[in-house]
Write a structure and sequence with these properties.
Layout (H helix, E strand, L loop, with lengths): L1 E2 L2 E2 L6 H19 L6 H8 L3 H7 L3 H27 L4 H11 L5 H17 L3 H27 L9 H20 L5 H15 L4
Antiparallel strand pairs: 1-2
Helix pairs in contact: 1-2, 1-4, 2-3, 4-5, 5-7, 6-7, 7-8, 8-9
């Protein structure tokens, strides 16, 4: 940057750098698989030296957690967009928007879903990743539980439901539908249809 006759080093946006690294990680994961993701591979994809990348992330686990958090933030944005597209702020609409984001409904979600499956396998073998994955799973179930409880109070779901149990069942169903899709046993459209059938069964009869 030029300032009053002198070249001043441009100020580095560290958040932007970290985001760029996270994007590079997902590109490597989509192309080669999450198990092939290494600090060196991601540094090359991000166009920086290994030493520079390690300035931001000292370990592979640190980098992985940040990248997953980055993806989760993008998912939250997509949920908000989906709710707007569905219209209204009805609790059942919010619940449906969250659940549909868990399914492989488009190419972006399909790639993210496959990476998420790989991440869970890695988390089962790594305590730092495992701890993060458990917290994330509990947070998701808590979010769904809250939306189910709100929908019940609004008269949009059967008041006899157990919010905690139904939240766990929704997560389990979504996990199973994603697995069926990745194995070629279900189409993306069918996963949505089956989830809609389940949600309809939770509705209070009119």
């Amino acid at each position: 940057m030029y300032w009053y006759g002198e070249w001043v080093p441009r100020r580095v946006d560290h958040d932007e750098r970290r985001t760029g690294i996270a994007r590079a990680l997902w590109r490597v994961a989509e192309a080669k698989g999450l198990d092939r993701v290494s600090l060196r591979e991601v540094a090359a994809e991000a166009g920086m030296s290994l030493g520079r990348l390690q300035h931001y992330f000292g370990t592979r686990e640190d980098m992985m957690v940040f990248a997953v958090e980055f993806m989760n933030k993008r998912n939250v944005e997509r949920v908000a967009e989906r709710m707007l597209a569905m219209g209204g702020q009805d609790p059942l609409t919010r619940l449906r928007a969250i659940v549909m984001e868990m399914l492989p409904v488009d190419a972006r979600a399909q790639a993210g879903s496959l990476i998420n499956v790989s991440f869970l396998l890695e988390a089962a073998r790594s305590e730092p990743l495992g701890e993060y994955a458990r917290k994330r799973a509990l947070a998701l179930r808590g979010l769904l539980e809250g939306q189910i409880a709100l929908a019940m109070r609004a008269g949009r779901l059967d008041p006899r439901l157990d919010p905690e149990a139904e939240a766990a069942l929704l997560v389990g169903l979504a996990d199973g539908l994603r697995a069926g899709f990745h194995l070629g046993a279900l189409t993306a459209e069918r996963t949505v249809e089956l989830m809609e059938i389940h949600l309809a069964r939770l509705n209070t009869p009119v």
